[in-house]
Amino acid sequence: MIRFLLALFLVLVPALGQAASPTASRQTSPGGIAYTLLHLPGNKDVAIAAAWPTDWAYRAGVNQAAPVIGTKLILSGGAKGYPAGKAIESFADLKADASLYLAAEDHVIGEIVVRRKNLMPAIEIANAHLRAPALDQKWFTRIRDGVAQKLAAARARPFHAGFDAVRWAVFGNQPLRNALSLDAPGVFRNLTRADIVKWHHETITRHPEAVVVSGDIDAEMAGKVVDSLFAGLPDTTPKISRRVKADFSPRRILLHMPDAKTTTLAFIAPLPPTRLGGDEGDLVLTSALSGEKGVLFDAVRTRLRASYGFSAGFSNYTRELRVFFILGQVEPGKLAAVEQAVRKAYADFRKSGPSGDLARRKAPLKANFQKLPTLSMATARSELESALDGFQPGKVLEIVHDLDALTKDDLRKRLASAFPASDDFIVIAVSPNKNALPGACVISEPRQAADCR
Hints:
Layout: H1 2-10, E1 23-28, E2 34-39, E3 45-53, H2 66-74, H3 86-93, E4 96-103, E5 107-115, H4 119-131, H5 137-155, H6 158-171, H7 175-181, H8 193-203, E6 210-215, H9 219-229, E7 251-256, E8 263-271, H10 279-289, H11 295-304, E9 307-316, E10 322-330, H12 335-352, H13 358-371, H14 376-388, H15 399-405, H16 408-418, E11 426-431, E12 441-443
Parallel strand pairs: 2-6, 7-11, 7-12
Antiparallel strand pairs: 1-2, 3-5, 3-6, 4-5, 8-10, 8-11, 9-10
Helix pairs in contact: 1-14, 2-5, 2-8, 6-7, 10-16, 11-12, 13-15
C-alpha cells in the first residue's frame, strides 16, 4: 500500500510527456552499487530515489526526533559551497526538486527529480549535502522548534489524540511508540545538533537498501549518476535490528476530552504487509467503503443521519505493521449507535464484497495508474517501494495489468483472508461526554490506553 499511496500523490500533476515502451532492468553502477533502471522514453525529467535502512525508531537510549529533524535539516542546513537555505534556490534554478524524509520508520527516502539536461549539476548539489551537510545551528533550532509546535497543536485535535491513544494500546512504552508520536517529555527540547550528526553518519551511507533511476536515460549514464550521488559517503552497512511487540487485541476505548468540539470514532486493526501483495484489491475495497456512495456513508449518514462523514484507509506503523482503519466524526448522542452500525455494515461488506460494476469502480484508479510511466518521480517512488518489498524490477509497470485482472471473487477472497473481522478492531472514541460509549475503557489521556484490556 505504501507504494501505491506514494505514487497516487503525484499522478494528479500534469503529465510530462507520452511514454513509449517503458522497460525495467536490474543494473550495477561502475562503482558497484545495485539499482533498478526504469527506461521511460520521452520523459524530460530524470528521477532518482534511494532508501537507506534504519532502526533508530526501535532503539532505547537515542532521541527519537533525530530522524524527523535530520531529514529536514540536511538539504536546508547548508554544505561546503552552499550556505544554509541556498540548495533550495539552486535546485529551483535547475528546474529540480529534492527531498529527504522518513518512511514507515524503517527507511530514510531520498529523492531528486530534474530536467535531463541539468542532471549532473543537481546531483552535485545533492551529493554535497548528503556527504557533508553543515547542519547549521540556526536552521536546526528553527526546524526543531517548528516541528515541535506543529505536533503540539495537532495533539489537541481529537483524531490525533485518539491515534496517540491507539499507539499506547498497541505498543505501550516501547521506543517505537515514541518515534511514531514524538510526545515523550523533552524529546524536542533535549534534541541536539550532535544527535543529528550521529544519526546522519550511521544512516546516510554509500549502501542504500534500494535505488531506482527513472526517465529517458540509458544504463551508462544512469550508472554515472548513481556513483556521483553517493560518492564520498561512508562505505559501511549498518546492522539493523527492528524488534518490537505489537498488541492488536480488540478493545473499546473512550478518550474523555471535556473541551473537544467534536466527537470522533475510529476502528483500527492489522493487515498483512505490502510485501505479501494484494495492494490493488485493497485500493478497490477501500474506495467501495468510503465516499458519498460508499457502504459506510449509506449505513451511518443516510440511515442514521448520525455522522459528518466516514471513510476507510490504510497506514503503516512500520513496513511489517500495516493497519486498516475506519474513522469519522459523530454526533455525541449517537456514538454507541454509530459504532454498531459501522460494525454491521463492515461485517456485511466483508462477507459479500463490493456491489455494482467492478470495471466502473476500477476506472479512476486505472486512469491514474496509466499516467505513471509519464511521470519520472512517481514511477521511481512506486518502484522503490516495490523493490523494498522484494518484487522483481518493473512492478510499477504492471500495475494496470494487475488491476485489470482483479475479479469480484478475488476481492471476496481478499476480504476473507486479509481483512479483520468486525469484532477484531481496536475501537477508539474521543468525546467530551465520558459516558458516550457504554462499556468502554474510559481514559483522560492517551498514555492510559496502555492499561485498557
